[in-house]
Amino acid sequence: MINLPSGCRIYFAIQPINMHASFDRLALLVEEVIQQSPLNGHLFVFRNRQKDKIKILWRDRNGFWIFYRRIEKGRFKIPRVTQDCIELSYEDLRLLLDGIDISKFQRFPESFRYGIVQTFSFSAHATTKSVFTPLTRIVTRFIAVPLG
Questions:
Q1: CB-CB contact of 88 with 45 (8 Å)
Q2: CA torsion, ordered 20, 12, 106, 4, to nearest 10 deg
Q3: What angle do CA 81, 50, 69 make, to 5 degrees?
């Protein structure tokens, strides 16, 4: 994956496109569908009808790049939304390109994303006649702590 400059946004066009589209056609789709300028340095993601190919248009200071991804088995899990375009985070794009359904994930609010982890153990003994031996379990508890 490429290292994106700070402030780079990722726009995903939900409607499928013809994968024969090259630089000029994709730049036109950015203006028509996503309603952004293709020259602003953001990533613009497009997919085909079969959901097995993705093209990404990006412009750096020297010119345009096209990234093309095809998966051999399965399909990309495209979020079901009513808009023509959605904005993705960098992490969401990586999950999408790996074939993971990002619509099934629920994130913590930004201020609760990191916290303190406490680990403790306890013993559980069988209370009925059985051949089970006492079990020692490790339990990890996540405590959300606001950051800032």
A1: yes
A2: 100
A3: 90
Residue 111's φ and ψ, nearest 5 degrees, are: -75, -15
Q: Burial level of 109, CB count in 10 A (0-12/13-18/19+)?
A: exposed
CA 2 from centre of chain: 15
Q: Are 4 and 38 in contact (CB under 8 A)?
A: no
Q: Tokens standing for 64?
A: 């345009």
Ordered alpha helix ranges (H), 23-118? 23-29, 90-97
pLDDT single digits (tens) 13-25? 999 999 999 999 9
For 37, residues 6+ apart whose C-beta sits below 8 A from its C-beta are 30, 31
pLDDT at 132 over 80: no
| Cross-strand bridge partners of residue 88 | 10
